[in-house]
Design goal:
By secondary structure, this protein is an alpha+beta fold. Among the domains are: about 10-85, Beta Barrel (Elongation Factor Tu (Ef-tu), domain 3), CATH 2.40.30; about 185-215, no CATH class. It has 4 helices and 13 strands. The protein has a 7-stranded antiparallel sheet. Strand 4 (about 45-50) and strand 5 (about 55-60) form a beta hairpin.
Length: about 220
């Protein structure tokens, strides 16, 4: 489990294919790292399989390569790194599992004082999990959704986040890993499972329809 507060901006030092999967070599000053511990790499939870003088290596499955941007990153590209949350640590962001739901694409960015507003396009199937003032993790960074439609959401990046994460260098048209809010995901599943006669809510469903289903299921 992670919080979405990036500890360090590392770099992809190398990648080698292993059948349908791959091994990533990450350069970082985080440490000391232990074999078997979990590290969020651009939002994807990976296991340390080998420690090196300059960082660590991690195996990446074909599922992770298909779901995330890790198979497309160029050598030397910056990556956001976060070690797993220890019991008793401050939860400064939100609960992030490191299980990426898909990718999103930066559609626009604009200055907002010293900050930057970023608009991302995402897969419509995830619309029911993204809400205004809710949380998302983009490349492992915990962010608050300022506005949301069935196809896009807006977030604001403060100067600190811009400087210490890879989001500052993300260009329009660039892809990022997206994880929706963990609670929203399970709430939607519970509502769907408790109402087998009702079809799953589609992208763009009205708030009234969702509230009615929540009430029927005993959540409100």
């Amino acid at each position: 489990m992670f919080t979405g507060l990036v500890e360090e901006k590392g770099a992809l030092a190398g990648r080698r294919r292993t059948g349908e999967g791959a091994v990533l070599e990450l350069r970082t000053s985080l440490g000391p790292l232990e074999l078997g511990e979990s590290i969020s790499v651009d939002g994807a939870c990976l296991t340390v399989t080998k420690t090196t003088a300059n960082g660590f290596e991690a195996d990446v499955s074909s599922e992770t390569l298909a779901r995330t941007t890790l198979g497309e990153l160029r050598e030397g590209a910056p990556v956001n790194l976060e070690r797993s949350l220890a019991l008793g640590d401050r939860l400064g962001g939100h609960l992030v599992s490191g299980h990426v739901d898909g990718t999103c694409t930066l559609a626009a960015r604009a200055p907002l004082g010293d900050a930057v507003t970023m608009t991302f396009e995402y897969e419509p199937r995830l619309a029911k999990f993204i809400a205004e003032k809710g949380s998302v993790a983009v490349n492992g960074v915990s962010l608050t959704v300022n506005a949301a439609t069935a196809e896009t959401f807006d977030v604001t990046i403060i100067p600190h986040t811009r400087d210490v994460t890879s989001l500052g260098a993300l260009e329009v048209g660039g892809k990022a890993n997206l994880e929706v809010d963990l609670i929203a995901r399970y709430l939607a599943r519970l509502v769907s499972a408790s109402s087998p006669e009702a079809p799953p809510a589609q992208a763009g469903s009205s708030d009234a329809a969702w509230l009615e289903r929540l009430e029927r299921s005993g959540f409100t």
